[in-house]
Structure formats: structure tokens, C-alpha cells
């Protein structure tokens, strides 16, 4: 069993090792100090390149990715913002893997995170035995990235308390961390930078200070509005997840198109042709949720069906995806089936409608 197969989810630099090696062999462009690949090669890694057999990691606006890469080549930090499920963490991980070969120096933002987890802490057993020494210092992922000249990732930065967020201000301004216990200042090596992500639904929870905002370049990753683009993403990610689980399943175009259409229309509050308003649920109808629903449908069909995923399998997962925050959201789905789905033709639309009796029993 390979190292990739032995773990549930290997980091991007392990999963995409062959692609990164092909890009490195192809790359004849100049590289910023500390980078493994040139900005042009990093772009190919993220957006894909058929000639080099590089699959796309992000489907969307190429200009936004170019701005993100150019930002990381400067001394400015990068903040990826957007709705939940718009691939912010996914893009962050793959940018880090391509630039420095390490996507694992990550701080996960939560309400309980402390400044120590951004800067450094101590091994208290060694601290009591030896006092403050280099050996008793426990560097944070950010400090490790500064020492090695690599990328640190800060996930969901707005979930942290404002005073904890502001611990980054001096790091981003001075590119240094003072360690007064050792009478030492740690200076960042060339190549160091930070990629942070922020969920637009969390605005106002712990709003970033103006001082901290000024130290980031903001790049928004929008929700996909193009039906074909979102279908491609949902299909590709589902197939990757099936491969990770050593499973095979047929994903008919009609099934994928119907599922993505449901997500887009409930998300936008109207049918795709703009002729009918529909009630939107309060939960986020993201592309990532659509992938989860389709993959879950494949699991149901494989383990509890005849191996052919259909609309009824998908609907059983769709209910769970919608009714997360408020059970009244089930009304939005029921209304959609009664006023929109019943007018549509096709096998999958009929299978969705057949679940109405089951929905009423919930």
C-alpha cells in the first residue's frame, strides 16, 4: 500500500506529486526567491493544462487566480474571501503546495484560538527543567513558515477574536516575531507569506480591524453561476472522491445537471430562465454541498441499492444538506418540488417528484 493509499486524505503536495514534477521539468521561467515553481507554472497547476496533463484545481475566473499568485510573489499577504463552499481552502492548499511544496503549516481559526497558537508556545516540562531555551520553544505554524521561507495558511480568520487576529499585524508589517524570553527576534526568510481565508457569512462575528485589512490583498472567490462550469466541478470532485474510496459509479449527465440545477435555482431564488421565483432555504447551497450530496448518493446506491445512483438516492442526501439550520427550510424544498420540479421532463426530475410523499412524513 502506497503512502497516499494509507491515509484518508493526503496533502496536495502528495496527491499531486506527479503533476508538480511535470511542471517542474517544464518550467523555464524565473522563480521568486524561495518558490519551487514560477508564477506561470503555479497558474497552470491551479487552472489546469491539457497539454501537460494537469487537471484543473479551480474552475472559475483566471484573472482572480493570477492576482492571488502575484500577491504571494510580493510582500503582501493574501486573503481569499467568499461564501462557504467556494473552494477557498482548496485553492489555499494547492497554492501552498505549488509554491513551496508544503501545504500543512496551517492555523485553523476558532473562537478558542489564542495568540500563542499564532506566534509560539512552550514545552512546559522543559521550561520548568531548563528555563526558556530554543529546545523548550514550540513554534507555531506561522513561525515555522517564517524560519523556512514558506507559506503559512490561516483558515477562517474571522472566527478568531479580534485581539488574536491583530497578533498578525506586526508579523505582516515587520516580517518578524519578537521572543522576549530568549531576548531574540525571529526574522522571516524570503519566500514567507500568509494565505488567509474568510467566510463572508461570518462578517460581523469578529470583524477584522482596519489595520489588519490593510496588510492583505483581498481576492473574492464567487459562487459559480454558470451551469456547465458547476457541473464540471461537481462531476470532477465526485469522481476524485470515488477514486479515493476505490469505488466506481456511473454519473449520468442528466443526474448531474438536475442536481446542479436544483442547487442553483434554490440558491438564486428563481428558475434559471428567470421566469419563476422560488423560496430559498436559509442554509448555504454551495458547490461543495452539491459534491457531498452526489457522492453520498453514490454510496447509497452502491451499498444499499443496485449500484446505479438515481434521483431518489440524491434526494435523501439533499434533505440533510438543506435542513441544517432550520427545519422550516424543508418547506422551501417541498414547495420547489411542487411548483417547479413537477413541470420538468426527464427521468431524474420524475424520481425527485416521487419523494414528495416521503418528505411529508418527515
Could you characterize the architecture of this molecule?
The chain is α/β, with parallel strands linked by helices. The chain folds into two domains: 3-220, 3-Layer(aba) Sandwich (Rossmann fold), CATH 3.40.50.300; 227-360. The protein is built from 18 helices and nine strands. It has a five-stranded parallel β-sheet with strand order 2-5-8-1-9. Strands 3-4 form a two-stranded antiparallel ribbon. It starts with a helix and ends with a helix. 38% of the residues are buried. The model has no long low-confidence stretch (mean pLDDT 91).
Short description:
Helices cover 47% and strands 11% of the residues.
Shape: globular
Structural category: alpha/beta
Strand numbers in spatial order across the main sheet = 2-5-8-1-9
Counted up, domains total: 2
| CATH 2nd-level architecture of the largest domain | 3-Layer(aba) Sandwich
Sheet with the most strands, sense and barrel status: 5 strands, parallel
Counting DSSP E segments of at least 2 residues, the number of strands comes to 9
| Element order: H for helix, E for strand | HHHHHEHEEHEHEHHEEEHEHHHHHHH
Mean pLDDT: 91
Q: In percent terms, what proportion of residues is strand?
A: 5-15%
By CATH's scheme, which homologous superfamily of the largest domain applies? P-loop containing nucleotide triphosphate hydrolases
Instruction: Provide the helix percentage.
Output: 40-55%
Tell me the radius of gyration. 23 Å
- How far apart the termini lie comes to 44 Å
Per DSSP, the total helix count is: 18
Point out poorly predicted stretches: none
CATH topology type of the largest domain: Rossmann fold
